[in-house]
Amino acid sequence: MIPSNQDIAALVRGDSVHKSVYTDPVLFQLEMERIYGQAWIYVGHDSQVKNVGDYHTTRLGDQDVIMVRGANKQVNVLYNRCPHKGAKLVADGDGNVGKFFRCPYHAWTFRLDGEHLSAPLKSGFEGTCYDPRHPDFQMVSVARVESYRGFVFASQAAHGPDLKTFLGGVISSIDNLCDRSPVGEVEVAGGVFRVMQRSNWKVFYENLHDTMHARVTHESSFEAARSEASAIGEMPFELLIMDGNGEPYDFWEKLELRAYHNGHGYMEGIFDPAAATRDPVSRAHFQALSEAHGEDRAREILGMNRHNTVIYGSGSPHTVFQQFRVIRPVSVDRTLVEIQTFRLKGAPDEVFDRALTYANVINSPSSNVMPDDVEVYARCQEGNLTRGGDWISMHRYAGSDTELPDGAVSTNGTSELPMRNQFAAWKHFMTATLIAKESTHAA
Ligand code: FES
Ligand SMILES: [Fe+2]
């Protein structure tokens, strides 16, 4: 039975949340309709479909979609369904379909914007209602598609705020990721990693700004990095990025967390940008940016020091090391994460090499760090299936957050504000028919 809006609202309190939001398949299905059916969701980057006919498949919630470069060079986002018998027109992944889609089942064809082109043996339709111009015979486009600096988002709702309004202040993270390129452009490069997590999708979003877990969950990896550094007498980048999780609690408390409307937010960077400019890779990067924009602007761009950003429902860009972890719910207890790495066009090759190293060491399936997280997410999923209690605490620093003039909220780095903010947005999406800009922050 579908729960009422009142029942759903009762699952989220200002300082705690009912565990069924992670375990109930009915709520999961409602999330697919009410969150993923309304919000702007990141589809992919337009560099993944450079040429006419290039496509990239992904999912908007439970909906298989194709991002494809059309004949007019525009990027289209279409449901991956042939209107004949419903077959998926392209296999999951990336490729090029040429000038049109051709269904693998009975060879109906479609233009790259989804318009029906032809069906074999037309004579068989004579005297029937078959009409190639009728919507029943077209591929269907997702209701709205917008791109911001090459990042393509789609919304399945015909109405609602535009992409920029939806993203609000968190758009600054996309800007900074692009601005780090001397020509202001980025591209997905070096392939992508995919990891299937045995946990609900929301757990990962909450963890992205959960600083209290770092020195506990990652103890084995940061201790290993420290012991290796002491054995070799230096702390190279590969070890430095593992070592960061071992900072003491007072370090994390001083970091800023910022929460925006619609569940978005970011966490301040954990690696000192001033120290970073002393290494040769950062110096070369600074040099290239200075040549393009002058030293002051280069300093400003590289000085924007952010660790994980959350674009709720889409995933997590990491601006400093050029990643985007795309988070895709698969079922109530399965989440597929695709890790994209970006090349900053016009930046020295070493900067891209460093981004790949970060992806390998921190985010890849064979990372020394991410399996720590994936293990605790699965434990949360399994623990919440027991009868050992019903509520999940998000009390830390509840009620002490500072509202900023632009409507964002800032707080101590160990606060559970991000989780409260995400669940306020969750509650709003799940109980409102359209996304409103107001009232998505926790009370
Ligand atoms: S299912 Fe596509 S042509 Fe028949
Ligand atoms: Fe972690």
UniProtKB/TrEMBL annotation:
Residues 40-154 form the Rieske domain. Transmembrane segments: none annotated. Pfam families: Rieske, Ring_hydroxyl_A. Keywords: 2Fe-2S, Dioxygenase, Iron, Iron-sulfur, Metal-binding, Oxidoreductase. GO terms for molecular function: dioxygenase activity. PROSITE patterns: RIESKE (PS51296). InterPro entries: Rieske_2Fe-2S, Rieske_2Fe-2S_sf, Ring_hydroxy_dOase_asu_C_dom, Rng_hydr_dOase-A. PANTHER family: 3-PHENYLPROPIONATE_CINNAMIC ACID DIOXYGENASE SUBUNIT ALPHA, CHOLINE MONOOXYGENASE, CHLOROPLASTIC. Belongs to the bacterial ring-hydroxylating dioxygenase alpha subunit family. This is Aromatic ring-hydroxylating dioxygenase subunit alpha. The lineage of its organism: Bacteria, Pseudomonadati, Pseudomonadota, Gammaproteobacteria, Pseudomonadales.
